[in-house]
Design brief:
Shape: globular
Strand order of the largest sheet: 1-2
Distance between the termini: 64 Å
Strand content: under 5%
Length: 311
C-alpha cells in the first residue's frame, strides 16, 4: 500500500513504444504548440496595440488567448520532453502543480466564456445600455471574477485531492496529471472526501451552462427579429465565433467528464484528453479571426509591421 507521503514521482502514460513514434509524437505536439503560441500571441499583440480593438469584446478575447497559451503550456511541453528524452516520470510536486494549473485555467476559461456570452447578449439585446452595463470597470471586475473562480476552485480541488491517501500505485493513465486519473489511485474509502468538492464544481458548471444557453436563446430570438438581412448577418458574425468556441469547449469537456465507464479505455481517454486540452487553444484563434474583419485587419497590419522590421 502506497501513501501519498511516500510517493516521490508519478509515471505518465507513454504515447508511443518505439523511438520513431516517440519522435513523431514530439513533432506533432511541437507543431500544435507552436501554432497555439503563434495564433494566440498574434491576437494578444493585435488587441493590445490597436486602439480600435480596445473594446469589451476584444478585452475578453485577449484574456481568453492568455488562458489558452497558459493551459496548453501546462501539459504539452512536459509531454514533448518525455517523448524526446524517452522518459515517463513527473515529480510529485510537478504533478500537483499540473493538476492545480489545469483546473485553474480550465475553470477560469469556462467562467470567462460565460462572461463573454453576457457581453454578446447585452451588445445585441440591449445595445442602448451597452456602455452602461459593460463599461471598462465592469469588464475588469468580470474578468477578475472569472480568474478568481478558477483559482479558488483549483486550490480547493488540488488541496483535497493530494490529501487523500493513494493506495493504487503511481501510474497515471494519461499523458499529463489529470484529476480523474489521480483519483483512481486513491483508496476506495477515501474517494468520498472528494465528492463534496466535485458537487461544488458541478453546481458552478451547470450554472454557467444554463446562463450561456439562456443568453443565446434570447440572442437568437432578438437576431431573428432584425428586419434587414445585413443586420442579421452582422449580429450572427458577432456571435458565431464565440458560440463555436463554447461548443468545442463544452462538448469535449462534457464527454470527458460524463462518458460511461463501459466506453473508457486508455486509447479513448487519450484522444478525449487531446481534444479538450490541446486542440481548443490551437483552434480558437482561427475561429475568432476567420469571420472578424476588424481582427483580420489588425493581424494583417501586425504581420506587415513584423515583416518591415526584418527587412
Amino acid at each position: 500500500m502506497l501513501n501519498c507521503s511516500s510517493l516521490s514521482d508519478f509515471i505518465l502514460l507513454a504515447l508511443a513504444d518505439n523511438r520513431e513514434l516517440q519522435l513523431l509524437h514530439f513533432l506533432l505536439f511541437l507543431g500544435i504548440y507552436l501554432a497555439a503560441l503563434l495564433g494566440n500571441s498574434f491576437i494578444i499583440t493585435a488587441v493590445a496595440c490597436n486602439h480600435r480593438l480596445h473594446t469589451p469584446m476584444y478585452f475578453f478575447l485577449l484574456n481568453l488567448s492568455v488562458l489558452d497559451i497558459s493551459s496548453i503550456s501546462v501539459t504539452v511541453p512536459k509531454s514533448m520532453a518525455n517523448s524526446l528524452w524517452n522518459t515517463r516520470a513527473i515529480s510529485y510536486s510537478g504533478c500537483a502543480a499540473q493538476v492545480f494549473l489545469i483546473l485553474f485555467l480550465f475553470i477560469a476559461e469556462y467562467c470567462l466564456l460565460t462572461v463573454m456570452a453576457y457581453d454578446r447578449y447585452v451588445a445585441i439585446c440591449r445595445p442602448l445600455h451597452y456602455g452602461t452595463l459593460v463599461g471598462s470597470r465592469t469588464c475588469v471586475k468580470m474578468a477578475a471574477a472569472a480568474w478568481a473562480s478558477g483559482f479558488l476552485n483549483a486550490l480547493l480541488h488540488t488541496a483535497n485531492t493530494f490529501s487523500i491517501p493513494l493506495c493504487q500505485g503511481n501510474a497515471v493513465d494519461q499523458f499529463f496529471c489529470e484529476l480523474p486519473q489521480i483519483l483512481k489511485l486513491s483508496c476506495s474509502d477515501s474517494y468520498l472526501r472528494e465528492v463534496g468538492v466535485i458537487v461544488v464544481r458541478i453546481c458552478l458548471g451547470f450554472g454557467c451552462f444554463v446562463f450561456i444557453v439562456v443568453s443565446y436563446v434570447q440572442i437568437f430570438t432578438a437576431v431573428l427579429r432584425i428586419p434587414s438581412e445585413q443586420g442579421r448577418h452582422k449580429a450572427f458574425s458577432m456571435c458565431l465565433p464565440h458560440l463555436a468556441v463554447v461548443s468545442l469547449f463544452l462538448s469535449t469537456g462534457i464527454f470527458a467528464s460524463l462518458k460511461p465507464p463501459s466506453l473508457s479505455s486508455p486509447a479513448l481517454d487519450l484522444v478525449v484528453a487531446v481534444l479538450y486540452s490541446v486542440v481548443p487553444p490551437a483552434v480558437n484563434p482561427l475561429i475568432y479571426s476567420m469571420r472578424n474583419k476588424e481582427l483580420k485587419e489588425a493581424l494583417r497590419k501586425l504581420i506587415q509591421w513584423v515583416q518591415c522590421q526584418h527587412q
